UniProtKB/TrEMBL annotation:
GO terms for biological process: methylation. It comes from Actinomadura macrotermitis. It is an enzyme of class 2 (transferase). The lineage of its organism: Bacteria, Bacillati, Actinomycetota, Actinomycetes, Streptosporangiales. SUPFAM superfamilies: S-adenosyl-L-methionine-dependent methyltransferases. Residues 52-147 form the Methyltransferase domain. This is Ubiquinone/menaquinone biosynthesis C-methyltransferase UbiE.
């Protein structure tokens, strides 16, 4: 797999412990983002004969949704995580889907064929590009003229209760570090002005950036949510002494209890659904 040196840290993370955790909890992550599934499919508008590229496909749910629509076409899902890609392949086999292929690749530099795909789609994957200008140019190159890029990315941190509440609890009184401008991460594409500049500079036209707000379910009850999140966000406990660690985990459990209702443990979230066309 060819890796852009700028993406080396991302590759080590997603093909290491982070990717392993996401692979083991693939179904939970899909349930977590279930509210965004239908809007993303509708915006992608995959046709029966389309060739589709799923960028940062993870465990394959979005790619498999596309494959069901592209019955005479095909889907290529790419990701940095070998473990998540294996989950995607296993899911495809279990669901009887034969027109989806999954490949370990860095979409920022991968030599996709020129003008091949009709649609490129990404569910919270493009935010992790170390060089988004180069990555979007590479995606534009592999799309046919008039081809669509549809991506779901997070709105700013302040608009996302799930992150403010959960990370805030585990911070144990420490201020949350602000997202670094331009650095890869969950909020890297939260600024619509920056996104428009990146996309038009890469060869796309008329980006449409639509706000979406959905609740996210982190577990059926606080115990299930706690087990999931203590592992997912455990890195935030690094460097804490025993007392502050207990304080942080206690605060996490308290916020989960506060957000527990008939439909599970839920937090508000806000994303951008971005649709644009290759020139």
């Amino acid at each position: 797999m060819r890796i852009d040196p700028a993406n080396a840290d991302q590759a080590r993370s997603w093909d290491g412990d982070a990717g392993e955790y996401w692979a083991r909890h693939a179904d939970r992550f899909d349930r977590n983002l279930a509210g965004y599934r239908a809007p993303l499919q509708e915006a992608a508008a995959v046709g029966p004969a389309d060739q589709v590229l799923d960028i940062g496909c993870g465990a394959g749910r979005t790619a498999l949704d596309a494959a069901r629509r592209a019955v005479r076409g095909g889907v290529l899902g790419v990701d940095l995580s070998a473990r998540m890609l294996q989950v995607a392949r296993d899911r495809a086999a279990a669901e009887g889907i034969s027109n989806a292929v999954f490949e370990q690749a860095d979409a920022q530099v991968h030599p996709f064929p020129d003008a091949h795909f009709d649609v490129a789609v990404s569910r919270t994957g493009t935010m992790f590009f170390a060089d988004p200008a180069a990555a979007f140019a590479n995606v534009a190159r592999t799309l046919r003229p008039g081809g669509r890029l549809v991506q779901l990315v997070w709105q700013p941190l302040q608009a996302n209760e799930w992150f403010l509440s959960l990370a805030g609890a585990l911070a144990a009184g420490r201020p949350l570090p602000p997202p670094q401008p331009g650095a890869p991460g969950p909020f890297a594409l939260a600024d619509p002005g920056r996104v428009r500049g990146l996309l038009t500079g890469a060869g796309f036209t008329d980006p449409d950036i639509r706000p979406l707000q959905k609740s996210m379910c982190f577990g059926a009850d606080p115990d299930e949510a706690y087990d999931f999140l203590a592992g997912l966000l455990g890195w935030m406990l690094e460097g804490l002494d025993d007392d502050r660690r207990r304080q942080a985990l206690g605060a996490l459990r308290a916020t989960l209890e506060e957000h527990h209702g008939p439909d599970g443990v839920r937090y508000a979230s806000a994303a951008w659904l971005i649709t644009t066309t290759r020139s």
